[in-house]
Design a protein that fits this description.
about 65% helix; disordered N terminus; cell membrane; MetI-like_sf; 3 strands; three-stranded antiparallel β-sheet; transmembrane helix
Length: about 400
């Protein structure tokens, strides 16, 4: 090699092609979408009445609440950080899908969850909020019949002294005459919001803390992990009970309390995975090339622990849904928002005469939790083949 050939040092290499402060198309799209949501939020805040007035499609209009805005923010983050990467990396997506579809139960579960998600997103806009109607109490579901003396007034056909179900109330009614179909659909919205918003808060904070603690190490790691220890000593459930006593129960309070104070386990899981990735050769190469901490974390560590994060997400969501249902069953939730746990509790004293009141929402709750477990196992096997047991 000629001695006249100029030699370039690592610190002279512009290994980051962007060079300075630049934004890629994904980040630009996210910022523009967040800007649009901010403008809509300001308009809704200063406008009197609902942002979407009643019309032939929206029977009761749509008065956006703080929870609705949080949900739209979560959908935006889900679209840009989950859907967009899957579309951009089609080859890897196709490979993961081939691995995922090997589990038929998981494929059926995913289809079921997509139906639940769609109904929870669109259904509440088309279903009238159920009202108390004592004359329509204890109507049986379609295909079933009860003693005509059980309901105060039979809406369906009466034959052989028995009241038969009517398509006016396909899933029957509660003891107060509320339509169970409407309650189930509204419960889907509650479960979807609980699962998506709370889990995004937990994963977002936990992944950030765990990754920074693992990569930076030293005093930063010690301080962050000791805070996690302190946080986990004081259960979020006790804080939630205290706030219920002071301010009353609400769905927004549940999301904020468990989203902001339940990420310790996720942080430890992500920290463990990040410690393994930070010892890989590609991270050493990036360090030697002059990459700063932010670049290494965003471009090398986080993308390579995404499998761990996604798997943890699929396990967090069913736990949150089940926990909220349990609190609603114990009357520790928001009494103004129908949920599956609240409907199950409404029929617990009528299991012998009106079994459908508790059973039908209980079946939906059971199938949703089971579906998330199947999907979580399949995602774990698809994203990390080492987890498969021969």
């Amino acid at each position: 090699m000629s001695s006249d050939t100029p030699r370039r040092r690592f610190e002279d290499i512009d290994w980051d092609a962007n060079g300075g402060f630049t934004l890629d198309r994904q980040t630009m799209g996210l910022l523009l979408t967040l800007g649009g949501l901010t403008v809509a939020f300001v308009i809704d805040y200063f406008q009197e009445g609902p942002l979407f007035a009643p019309n032939p499609v929206l029977r009761e209009g749509w008065d956006l609440t703080q929870l609705d805005w949080l949900f739209m923010l979560s959908l935006t983050l889900f679209a840009f950080y989950v859907v967009v990467p899957l579309v951009r990396h089609r080859r890897m997506t196709a490979y993961y899908w081939q691995e995922f579809r090997k589990n038929r139960a998981a494929v059926l579960s995913l289809a079921y969850l997509l139906v639940i998600f769609t109904l929870g997103l669109v259904g509440p806009l088309l279903v009238t909020r159920p009202q108390v109607a004592l004359l329509q109490s204890y109507q049986p579901p379609v295909g079933f019949a009860v003693d005509s003396a059980v309901p105060l007034q039979c809406v369906g056909d009466v034959g052989d002294g028995r009241c038969h179900g009517s398509w006016q109330f396909p899933l029957g009614t509660t003891g107060s005459g509320k339509d169970i179909l409407a309650l189930v659909v509204l419960g889907m919205r509650v479960s979807m919001r609980i699962g998506l918003i709370t889990s995004f808060l937990i994963v977002g904070i936990g992944a950030t803390v765990g990754t920074v603690a693992a990569y930076v190490g030293g005093l930063v790691d010690e301080v962050l992990m000791r805070y996690v220890d302190i946080q986990q000593v004081f259960p979020s459930f006790l804080l939630y009970l205290l706030l219920i006593y002071l301010f009353g129960g609400s769905l927004l309070m549940f999301i904020l309390v468990f989203g902001l104070f339940s990420w310790g386990g996720t942080a430890r899981l992500v920290r463990s995975a990040s410690l393994q990735r930070s010892q890989e050769a590609y991270v050493d190469v990036a360090r030697c090339a002059g990459a700063d901490t932010k670049h290494v974390i965003l471009r090398h560590i986080l993308p390579n622990i995404s499998g761990t994060v996604i798997t943890n997400l699929t396990l967090l969501i069913p736990g949150l849904i089940l926990f909220e249902a349990g609190l609603a069953f114990l009357a520790l939730g928001d009494p103004t928002i129908p949920s599956w746990g609240q409907t199950i509790a409404a029929g617990r004293s009528d299991l012998r005469t009106a079994w459908w009141v508790s059973t039908i929402p209980g079946v939906f709750l059971f199938l949703t939790i089971l579906a998330f477990n199947f999907v979580g196992d399949a995602f774990r096997n698809a994203l990390d083949p080492r987890s498969e047991v021969d």
